[in-house]
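for the recovery benchmark. tokens below, seq after
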């Protein structure tokens, strides 16, 4: 990171509609995060979007008057050469694949859930081989770079990188913790900077074990407020089915929006079925949102991130991404919740597994802050998801059908091995073109 005039950042999946978030974050921090070059990389199928988003990015930096050179390319290797940070935000199979991830399980009365559910398994099977290829390119072309992954299923992807690549400088990132903190501050009507949440768990399975306002615990108050259906605290992509107050008190930890899929499975299933019939699955809703966003992005007069982007579930993730890069670069030592190697921070999760936990961010990366352990009543679910992630990652790497069946069956949203097999078989077939490890026979 030294000796050059500024940093080189590479964003894989640069044509994503989220990219203006990143650009805005980099512009905001330019004074302390001198980026010389930003390379937006995409694949041939994403060429048009890359062009549109890339041109908006160029207008944004020009308007802000910051000298960041934006490069658009379909050549990943060319982009990666000597990068300092690589961010990944791609979707293998695009939104059409997400639609299948969400829709097929519903036919069997199972929630698809594109991250920690059956949909997440198939998304992982498509994504992990690609991310591992990117890891190999990083080792060859920019071995000192930090890889910051937002690609879902972010927990499973981080787990796969830790277990199946030789990359160690990797951080998985999500906007759920930042979203929870923002919503708590909003609910209490206070500045975000006065709120501190002790986050611990896994990606999309993270709890606020405690929450403080000016250093004083206000967990009970927050749990009480969350019991009010108007304060249900959710994200744009998750139905805000109301929490039961007694359950929240008993849980004694702040759940994230995704916990609804596991603690309110029947109500969430009913809601997903209703939504898929009335307005389409989330993939279809997002397709429409994206169409509108790209129309806006095309406008030559637009040179800021449009507020409409906040309709996406991943809104504000740039704050998380840019703060993280900034803190690593400046060795800031602040606390951020990220996905990293547990290293004993949460006692009941394997030492070498990825966890989402508050970390001190240094130039050597995130240093997880030990929480002791999760409350006994949430350990089971958290460990089920961890076992699911590890097994799914093994299936993705090996292309082993039986491993994939195992992963599908042990997912807490799937009721039996019989249903698991039906869902898996239909989904493998539906995603055939993006699952070469399951279908291409190896030549002897
Ligand atoms: C949340 C999650 C992200 C996910 C996003 C989906 O913010 O934290 O991991 O990608 O929602 O949002 P979308 O608008 O695509 O449904």
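predicted aa per position
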């Amino acid at each position: 990171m030294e000796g050059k005039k500024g940093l080189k950042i590479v964003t894989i999946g640069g044509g994503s509609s989220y990219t203006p978030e990143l650009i805005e974050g980099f512009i905001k921090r330019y004074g302390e995060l001198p980026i010389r070059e930003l390379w937006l990389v995409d694949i041939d199928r994403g060429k048009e979007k890359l062009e549109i988003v890339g041109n908006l990015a160029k207008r944004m930096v020009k308007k802000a008057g910051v000298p960041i050179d934006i490069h658009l390319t379909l050549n990943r290797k060319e982009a990666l050469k000597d990068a300092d940070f690589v961010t990944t935000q791609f979707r293998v199979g695009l939104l059409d694949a997400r639609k299948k991830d969400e829709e097929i399980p519903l036919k069997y009365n199972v929630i698809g859930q594109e991250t920690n559910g059956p949909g997440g398994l198939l998304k992982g099977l498509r994504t992990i081989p690609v991310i591992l290829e990117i890891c190999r390119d990083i080792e060859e072309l920019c071995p000192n770079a930090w890889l910051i992954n937002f690609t879902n299923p972010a927990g499973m992807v981080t787990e796969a990188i830790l277990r199946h690549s030789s990359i160690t400088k990797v951080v998985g990132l999500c906007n759920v913790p930042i979203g929870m903190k923002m919503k708590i501050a909003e609910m209490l009507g206070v500045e975000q900077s006065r709120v501190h949440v002790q986050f611990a768990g896994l990606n999309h399975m993270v709890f606020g074990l405690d929450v403080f306002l000016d250093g004083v615990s206000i967990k009970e108050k927050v749990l009480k407020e969350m019991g009010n259906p108007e304060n249900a605290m959710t994200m744009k992509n998750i139905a805000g089915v109301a929490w039961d107050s007694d359950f929240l008190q008993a849980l004694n930890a702040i759940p994230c929006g995704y916990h609804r899929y596991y603690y309110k499975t029947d109500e969430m299933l009913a809601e997903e079925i209703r939504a898929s019939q009335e307005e389409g699955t989330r993939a279809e809703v997002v397709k429409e949102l994206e169409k509108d966003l790209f129309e806006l992005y095309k406008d030559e007069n637009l040179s800021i991130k449009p507020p409409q982007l906040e309709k996406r579930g991943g809104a504000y993730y740039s704050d998380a991404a840019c703060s993280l890069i900034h803190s690593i670069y400046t060795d800031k030592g602040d606390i951020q919740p990220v996905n990293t190697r547990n290293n004993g921070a949460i006692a009941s999760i394997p030492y070498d597994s990825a966890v989402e936990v508050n970390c001190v961010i240094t130039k050597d990366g995130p240093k997880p802050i030990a929480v002791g352990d999760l409350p006994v009543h949430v350990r089971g679910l958290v460990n089920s998801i961890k076992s699911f992630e590890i097994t799914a990652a093994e299936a993705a790497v090996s292309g082993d059908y039986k491993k994939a069946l195992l992963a599908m069956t042990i997912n807490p949203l799937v009721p039996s091995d019989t249903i698991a097999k039906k869902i898996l078989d239909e989904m493998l077939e539906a995603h055939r073109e993006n699952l070469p490890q399951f279908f291409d026979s190896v030549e002897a």
